[in-house]
Amino acid sequence: MDILALLQPLNRVLAGATLLQLVVIVQAMLTMTGRVTMLNISRWAGEGGSYRSVQRFYHTVIPWAEASWIFLCHHLVWAKGEYILAGDEVVVSKAGKTTYGLDRFYASLFQRVIPGLAFFVFSLVSVEERKAYPLGAEQVIRTEEEKAANKAKAEDRKSKKKSSGSGKPGRPKGSKNKNKQEVVLNAELVRIKAQLEAVMKRIEGWIKLKYLALDGHFGHNAAVQMVRQCGLQVISKLRHDAELYLPYDGPYAGRGPRRKYGDRIHYDHLPAKILQCVSMEKDIETRFYQSIMLHKDFAHSATQCGHHCQNQLAYPCPCSCSSVQH
């Protein structure tokens, strides 16, 4: 009965019979052992949980994204709370050849490409509670055009490595300035943008979001512009060897456009003026740095948070510099 009371708000999107089936299945999943299959669920379910009933439930079309949001609004999410949105791709290993969407994806847990299924998930992260609540997941189905584009990009990267050091230095003759805010999104970013817009529309009027946290795979200008088109700012990270520059604050040269880029950041010798705080723990000194920096491939400035430790150990930053823009 407690489970039925918790799931009662879902009667807005679920029929009465479907809601009762969900209660039985949830209770069975919370008590069962072994693999979660329809046959095993029916064995652990009580009255109303026959195999045919479980099968009919999984053949029912249910708006899970809307149902999940209704459940969160009633029990876990508060309109006055502080939240950020986070997105990440999850890879599940899967053998066989006939599963829908089966492909080869890079899995960070295995540190290599494996055969399996991939899902892109958006979650709502509570800053006060330090908990994440999933808003929706969509299976990643890569088209042949996307696979061909990724292959061409990898080959182009290899050719650039081979030809590095050759040719004339400097800007190519005849090249023109480009508006870095006008980018062409690849198939992956188009798919994620459509999912992000659906999430933002679902929570519109309930929670005001400002930041979207993504991993280092999206630490480039095209992803930043995609997120800004949805009215958010990015919290991500750049490559470890990213070329960052301090804004130029020197005098005007007297002719031509004003200089934009100042000194380049060298991570082994960070300037003392961007040092924020120093902490000591067990005779280990850790220094935390934060500054607004520029990257020549980005259309906007970035606030970078970093630390330098004598033994290169990572510690959580005690200051407020964990809120970065790009």
Brief characterization of the structure:
With 326 residues, the chain is of the alpha+beta class. Helices cover 29% and strands 24% of the residues.
Secondary structure category: alpha+beta
For the residues shown, what is the average pLDDT? 83
CATH architecture title of the largest domain:
2-Layer Sandwich
CATH C-level category of the largest domain: Alpha Beta
Can you give the helix content as a percent range?
25-40%
From N to C, what is the helix and strand string?
Answer: HHHHHEEEEHHEHEEEEEE
Structure description:
The protein is α+β, with helices and mostly antiparallel strands and 326 residues long. The protein folds into three domains: 1-62, no CATH class; 80-160 and 180-237, Nucleotidyltransferase, domain 5, CATH 3.30.420; 240-249 and 259-326, no CATH class. 29% of the residues lie in helices and 24% in strands. It contains eight helices and eleven strands. It has helices spanning 2-7, 16-31, 38-44, 51-58, 64-75, 144-162, 187-202, 221-229, and strands spanning 83-93, 103-107, 112-126, 131-139, 211-213, 233-235, 245-247, 261-264, 275-281, 284-293, 302-309. Strands 1, 2, 3, 4, 5 and 6 form a six-stranded mixed beta sheet that branches. It has a three-stranded antiparallel beta sheet with strand order 9-10-11, with no helix packed on it. Strand 9 (275-281) and strand 10 form a beta hairpin. Helix 3 crosses helix 4 (51-58). The relative contact order is 0.08. Mean pLDDT is 83; it is low at 307-326.
